[in-house]
């Protein structure tokens, strides 16, 4: 059965709706077919190397995409470095110690520029790299809508306020995702991104010492490397978000929630006597359903665009405006 689920997870999910673009244009699956025909193979090969070197990188790039899209749309604003005239998003609270992999995107961008200069946005590269990172770890694939442009500004304040925290309640999660036009089902599917990746002790300490709806053995396991008092040397210690299969994109995340083994308070809120319990049960027993819903939700999230008055361009260097 596990092999069957894995095969289903690997199946392609082809989705091709059009979304409104930042400047009145449209995102399209064929946006670069003529202008940069080798784009997708360049990104794929680079992600193959990155994930082979460090499986966690697939989760890191996926998180980068999520944190970018939730702040004024998918516009690569998260990639901008601080300057004298610009305060970027890299050092915002939700990003400073959890978003990583910028060097991977920079390396991909350099290869893309060598193949087709001043053509492909950094925002589109992140979208493709996130898709490929998921797929390389055993998850689904999907057709990425392309044609995004890169913002010429960033908003650290929006990054601090628009992203849900590890301590969020279910009501807060539903509201935050709803504000982006994403449904509660989208939110529950996208939360399944936590089937891969690792988290720092500071993000889950409160849960393992203070939450009541947690498996005792699981809490004790995490307490071994995450001391209750901050500043005692364990703050940066990493733990897998999915205790069962942290380097494989599968549906064990939901099975863990049913056993009260969600690492974050916000994770366990999805299965805590609330409105998403039934969906968590379905995903826990049907990996193919989760994979399909996750792919659809990723396409919808990838359609979040900056406002029409946002100044945009195709950056030549993802770290800075042209």
UniProtKB/TrEMBL annotation:
<feature type="active site" description="Proton acceptor">
    <location>
        <position position="67"/>
    </location>
</feature>
<dbReference type="InterPro" id="IPR019793">
    <property type="entry name" value="Peroxidases_heam-ligand_BS"/>
</dbReference>
<dbReference type="InterPro" id="IPR019794">
    <property type="entry name" value="Peroxidases_AS"/>
</dbReference>
<protein>
    <recommendedName>
        <fullName>Peroxidase</fullName>
        <ecNumber>1.11.1.7</ecNumber>
    </recommendedName>
</protein>
<dbReference type="GO" id="GO:0004601">
    <property type="term" value="F:peroxidase activity"/>
</dbReference>
<feature type="binding site">
    <location>
        <position position="73"/>
    </location>
    <ligand>
        <name>Ca(2+) 1</name>
    </ligand>
</feature>
<feature type="site" description="Transition state stabilizer">
    <location>
        <position position="63"/>
    </location>
</feature>
<feature type="binding site">
    <location>
        <position position="195"/>
    </location>
    <ligand>
        <name>Ca(2+) 2</name>
    </ligand>
</feature>
<feature type="signal peptide">
    <location>
        <begin position="1"/>
        <end position="24"/>
    </location>
</feature>
<comment type="similarity">
    <text>Belongs to the peroxidase family. Classical plant (class III) peroxidase subfamily.</text>
</comment>
<feature type="disulfide bond">
    <location>
        <begin position="201"/>
        <end position="226"/>
    </location>
</feature>
<dbReference type="GO" id="GO:0042744">
    <property type="term" value="P:hydrogen peroxide catabolic process"/>
</dbReference>
<feature type="binding site">
    <location>
        <position position="250"/>
    </location>
    <ligand>
        <name>Ca(2+) 2</name>
    </ligand>
</feature>
<keyword id="KW-0376">Hydrogen peroxide</keyword>
<keyword id="KW-0732">Signal</keyword>
<feature type="binding site">
    <location>
        <position position="68"/>
    </location>
    <ligand>
        <name>Ca(2+) 1</name>
    </ligand>
</feature>
<keyword id="KW-0479">Metal-binding</keyword>
<comment type="similarity">
    <text>Belongs to the peroxidase family. Ascorbate peroxidase subfamily.</text>
</comment>
<keyword id="KW-0106">Calcium</keyword>
<keyword id="KW-0349">Heme</keyword>
<keyword id="KW-0325">Glycoprotein</keyword>
<feature type="binding site">
    <location>
        <position position="75"/>
    </location>
    <ligand>
        <name>Ca(2+) 1</name>
    </ligand>
</feature>
<dbReference type="GO" id="GO:0020037">
    <property type="term" value="F:heme binding"/>
</dbReference>
<dbReference type="GO" id="GO:0046872">
    <property type="term" value="F:metal ion binding"/>
</dbReference>
<feature type="binding site">
    <location>
        <position position="89"/>
    </location>
    <ligand>
        <name>Ca(2+) 1</name>
    </ligand>
</feature>
<keyword id="KW-0873">Pyrrolidone carboxylic acid</keyword>
<dbReference type="Pfam" id="PF00141">
    <property type="entry name" value="peroxidase"/>
</dbReference>
<dbReference type="InterPro" id="IPR010255">
    <property type="entry name" value="Haem_peroxidase_sf"/>
</dbReference>
<feature type="disulfide bond">
    <location>
        <begin position="36"/>
        <end position="116"/>
    </location>
</feature>
<feature type="binding site" description="axial binding residue">
    <location>
        <position position="194"/>
    </location>
    <ligand>
        <name>heme b</name>
    </ligand>
</feature>
<dbReference type="GO" id="GO:0009505">
    <property type="term" value="C:plant-type cell wall"/>
</dbReference>
<dbReference type="GO" id="GO:0005576">
    <property type="term" value="C:extracellular region"/>
</dbReference>
<comment type="function">
    <text>Removal of H(2)O(2), oxidation of toxic reductants, biosynthesis and degradation of lignin, suberization, auxin catabolism, response to environmental stresses such as wounding, pathogen attack and oxidative stress.</text>
</comment>
<dbReference type="InterPro" id="IPR000823">
    <property type="entry name" value="Peroxidase_pln"/>
</dbReference>
<feature type="binding site">
    <location>
        <position position="242"/>
    </location>
    <ligand>
        <name>Ca(2+) 2</name>
    </ligand>
</feature>
<feature type="binding site">
    <location>
        <position position="77"/>
    </location>
    <ligand>
        <name>Ca(2+) 1</name>
    </ligand>
</feature>
<keyword id="KW-1015">Disulfide bond</keyword>
<keyword id="KW-0560">Oxidoreductase</keyword>
<dbReference type="InterPro" id="IPR033905">
    <property type="entry name" value="Secretory_peroxidase"/>
</dbReference>
<feature type="domain" description="Plant heme peroxidase family profile">
    <location>
        <begin position="26"/>
        <end position="322"/>
    </location>
</feature>
<dbReference type="InterPro" id="IPR002016">
    <property type="entry name" value="Haem_peroxidase"/>
</dbReference>
<keyword id="KW-0964">Secreted</keyword>
